[in-house]
């Protein structure tokens, strides 16, 4: 059994129906064990290190903002190499447009890199990622209780449609406002935190 890092990204951590759906999958511990889970807002230095292989790409500043603007649910799991591969199959491909039908990202991802969850792609990567994150946050116990159900709606498919319009330069103003309204219905964030969710979501599309 090896360590792997798991992160509910902001598009899952704060869209409550999506978070509940992902937690219901994770909590089955079908071939893995959840060893640690907690809320944590990472600093830019950690995210820049975590995604160092993407530095220099045009979207990198957005990615750092996306992963640091709001608290995330960060966890550590243990799994065999085969189980980790099965988990990643369940999760689906990284980019939403290429995610396998029926995968978690196909069901709940909105657009491009807004793909709900990070999961280490191998035991070696998992060991390195857990070590890096543990330098900032203790990943020694389950310290958060996530809801299994939510009375909030899941607007994934409408959000995806609107995201496609915005990224294509079609009805940008109307589609952006509609996305904000749908996100507000999905989350319990308010004030500056809700504005941050709007910013990092729309920032992925421009």
Could you explain the architecture of this structure?
It is a single chain. It contains ten helices and four strands. The N and C termini lie far apart (41 Å). The protein has two domains: 2-134, Nucleoside diphosphate kinase-like domain (Alpha-Beta Plaits, 2-Layer Sandwich); 156-203, no CATH class. The model has no long low-confidence stretch (mean pLDDT 97). The protein is globular and about 50 Å long. Strands 2-3-1-4 form a four-stranded antiparallel beta sheet, with helices on both faces. With 206 residues, the protein is an alpha+beta fold.
Count of beta strands: 4
Tell me the fraction of residues in β-strands, as a range: 5-15%
* Helix-strand pattern: EHHEHHEHHEHHHH
CATH topology group of the largest domain: Alpha-Beta Plaits
Could you tell me the mean pLDDT? Answer: 97
CATH superfamily caption of the largest domain: Nucleoside diphosphate kinase-like domain
Biggest beta sheet attributes: 4 strands, antiparallel
Shape field? globular
Q: Approximately how much helix is present in the residues?
A: 40-55%
Given the helix and strand composition, which structural class is it? alpha+beta
């Amino acid at each position: 059994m090896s360590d792997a890092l798991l992160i509910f990204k902001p598009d899952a951590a704060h869209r409550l129906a999506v978070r509940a759906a992902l937690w219901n999958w994770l909590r089955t511990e079908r071939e893995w064990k959840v060893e640690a889970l907690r809320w944590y807002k990472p600093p830019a230095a950690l995210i820049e290190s975590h995604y160092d292989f993407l530095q220099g790409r045009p979207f990198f500043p957005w990615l750092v903002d996306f992963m640091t603007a709001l608290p995330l649910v960060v966890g550590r799991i243990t799994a065999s190499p085969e189980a980790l591969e099965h988990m990643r199959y369940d999760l689906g491909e990284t980019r939403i447009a290429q995610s396998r039908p029926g995968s978690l990202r196909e069901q709940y991802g909105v657009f491009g890199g807004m793909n709900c969850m990070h999961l280490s792609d191998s035991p070696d990567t998992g060991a390195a990622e857990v070590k890096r994150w543990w330098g900032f946050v203790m990943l020694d116990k389950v310290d958060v209780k996530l809801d299994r159900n939510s009375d909030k709606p899941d607007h994934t498919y409408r959000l995806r449609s609107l995201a496609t319009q915005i990224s294509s330069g079609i009805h940008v103003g109307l589609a952006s406002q509609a996305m904000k309204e749908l996100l507000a219905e999905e989350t319990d964030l308010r004030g500056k935190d809700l504005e941050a969710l709007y910013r990092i979501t729309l920032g992925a599309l421009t």
